[in-house]
Amino acid sequence: MKNILFDLDGTLTDPHEGIIKSIKYALDKLNAPIPSHNKLKKYIGPPLWESFKEMLNTDSDAEANKGVMLYRERFSTKGLFENQPYDGIDTALSYLNNKGYALYICTSKPQVFAKQIAEYFGFDHYFKGIYGSNLDGSLVDKSHLISHILQKENLLSVNSSMIGDRRYDIQGACNNKVTPYGVSYGFGSPDELKDAVRIFNTPVEITEHF
Questions:
Q1: pTM greater than 0.90
Q2: What ranges make up the beta strands (E) of 15-82?
Q3: Which residues participate in catalysis according to the annotation?
């Protein structure tokens, strides 16, 4: 049986509304400048601590952590549901299940939120496991998270693929000798996906390949 790890944000769902509103909420609480909506899109996908350091122009872990905590004040109650599965994702997941693939969610988003989102939109049953980071920031690095999933589920790299929209997904897969695939409909630039073996433009194209 082959295994496919899916990123969540920008791959299974379009979360931009909830994430951007929650970032704006945190920056407002911190009395920090709020970038434009389009500029904030670059922060969908990367680890939040890294993003808040950049937005706050700081190297302070404490300042970044304060931003993350304020972000979660809003995201944990409203933002995670301001989200929408991409057209065709449910069909693609059903198809892959029926073909015998073992599917896993592999996201830098905290696992507790990833599970809530998958359950809310009704696609949690397609996955053998839903993995994300811990609330303290551990396992937020995709390379570490993919390694953790491979060990936890006893998966062979040679039989596993990673599908995602950002460079973190591609690099994490490559660092674990997992086959990297990109999706162009998410939030990553073409340059971020340059090391992917193939780039899917729609969820339908995923089913055409596997």
A1: yes
A2: none
A3: 7
